[in-house]
């Protein structure tokens, strides 16, 4: 069966580096005969607020329809790419809310007497974080590792998805078009390395 690649975009601007990367990932996957589904959370006007009504419905096994649609797409996907700018050291609110509402108990994970267990096994995630600061600044502060842990393992790792790579794109607003193109080419090359099961060298774009 054809592989499905879910690309989640959480940048509000059409002309951003993030959305240029989304377009390139889409083209590249389609070129390799992979089915692509892009979910641009701003275009969808995705409601990011997990409400008490949502919680009550989910508890009763009645998943709200907008959540069920995202879950259906995620369940059918083999590869998940997340493309977002770093805002206050974290995800943009719309993306944080996507995780709050979509990765529900019973769909993404289960907690029982043996503890928590991820249910979305067999999938690979690639994270792409664009940022205003340099990678060195965050390395020196000792929090680059925390970003990998909190954005990658505490979300995807927790629900059983393998984090295949986490790319950081530094000082992106000051980067030249050539530099941005180089980052995009490196990102596409990274997917090929992982998919061909070659030796994986995690890249931190500097
Ligand atoms: C609300 C807000 C918060 C931000 N917080 C951070 C931050 O914590 N660290 C950082 O390096 N850059 C921060 N930035 C800069 C953005 O990460 C940067 O502008 C963005 O990655 C550009 O993305 P693009 O090239 O895809 O348009 C922030 C920008 C905004 C608008």
From TrEMBL:
Domain Flavodoxin-like fold: 3-188
GO CC, one annotated term: cytosol
InterPro entries: Flavodoxin_fold (IPR003680), Flavoprotein-like_sf (IPR029039), NAD(P)H_dehydrogenase_qn (IPR051545)
Domain of life: Bacteria
Alphabetic keyword roster: Oxidoreductase
GO MF annotation list: NAD(P)H dehydrogenase (quinone) activity
Pfam family, one: Flavodoxin_2
Record bears the keyword Magnesium: no
Record-stated family: Belongs to the NAD(P)H dehydrogenase (quinone) family.
PANTHER family reported in the protein's UniProt record: NAD P H OXIDOREDUCTASE-RELATED, NAD(P)H DEHYDROGENASE [QUINONE] 1 ISOFORM 1
Name recorded for this polypeptide: NAD(P)H dehydrogenase (Quinone)
Organism ancestry: Bacteria, Pseudomonadati, Bacteroidota, Bacteroidia, Marinilabiliales
